[in-house]
Amino acid sequence: MAPPSSALPLFGRALCAMVTPFTDDGLLDLDGAQLLAERLVADGCDGLVLSGTTGESPTTSDSEKAALVRAVAEAVGDRATVVAGVGSFATRHTVEMALQAEKAGADGLLVVTPYYSKPPQDAVEAHFLEVADASGLPLALYDIPGRTGTRIEPETMLRLAEHPRIVAVKDCAYDLMGSQKVMSRTDLAYYTGCDEFILALYAVGGVGYISTVANAVPRQLRAILDAFDAGDTDGARRRQQQSMELIELMMGSGLPGTVTSKALLGSLGLPGGPVRAPLRPAGREATDGLLSAYEALRQADLVSAGGEQG
């Protein structure tokens, strides 16, 4: 784990929800995962979140998830945190995966709300507490009701924040009022999981992001936080706005972020490989649009960097 700092949240500020690279025949590509992890850290990521939504957790096995944690932890060493996605629809299975991730070398856990069965809030709370009690690792709660069908309600968050190992939230609830309510009354570290909210959540007390788009442009997204921290709020706003074309194409075009990330990474000659069914690869038109937006952001970043240096 990266060394603690009073200025840096436990998991860092700029985290990438990393894709899980596969070989052309669909097998886990651990060499590719290490290369991608090293690139992301070199370009400004404080942490890597593995086997989340973007990491295709529904279609990877428990043994693949553990192998991925071991490989990435070995690659990045103490330069970045490694947070393992371990959530499932079953509490017992989630606990098993949490213990497996801890043994494999993870620094923290990302635990999604149990999905499909739509448990009531008391059951949601009990689920997270059981996972937190089972492992010695710190937990980030993953609140993404659009996928799970169940919200972690703010009042539930307030109670869960009392557990010493529940330390963070990946916020994909699209409820800025609810998020601010919890942030104002707890020490939970809030990370936006929605790239369009990077600056918005950071400005009202969030600690950073867990980003899918960072697979392609880690340095450009980190620059939003760096500008804000330096007091350059106009620069932070400009960088957020410059990123929006690519963010929209990757996250709001009707294709999953995993699909768009792997399409762009592949076009740039970076590890990613194919997606696993039922996902399907992006078409040529979508990929060309992603490349065009990527290049536009890269050029805008060069102009911004030149202006700052001048």
TrEMBL record:
It catalyses: L-aspartate 4-semialdehyde + pyruvate = (2S,4S)-4-hydroxy-2,3,4,5-tetrahydrodipicolinate + H2O + H(+). It comes from the Bacteria. It comes from Streptomyces durmitorensis. GO terms for molecular function: 4-hydroxy-tetrahydrodipicolinate synthase activity. Pathway: Amino-acid biosynthesis; L-lysine biosynthesis via DAP pathway; (S)-tetrahydrodipicolinate from L-aspartate: step 3/4. PANTHER family: 4-HYDROXY-2-OXOGLUTARATE ALDOLASE, MITOCHONDRIAL (PTHR12128:SF66), DIHYDRODIPICOLINATE SYNTHASE (PTHR12128). InterPro entries: Aldolase_TIM, DapA, DapA-like, Schiff_base-form_aldolases_AS, Schiff_base-form_aldolases_CS. It is an enzyme of class 4 (lyase). This is 4-hydroxy-tetrahydrodipicolinate synthase. Homotetramer; dimer of dimers. The keyword Transmembrane does not apply. The keyword Cytoplasm applies. The lineage of its organism: Bacteria, Bacillati, Actinomycetota, Actinomycetes, Kitasatosporales.
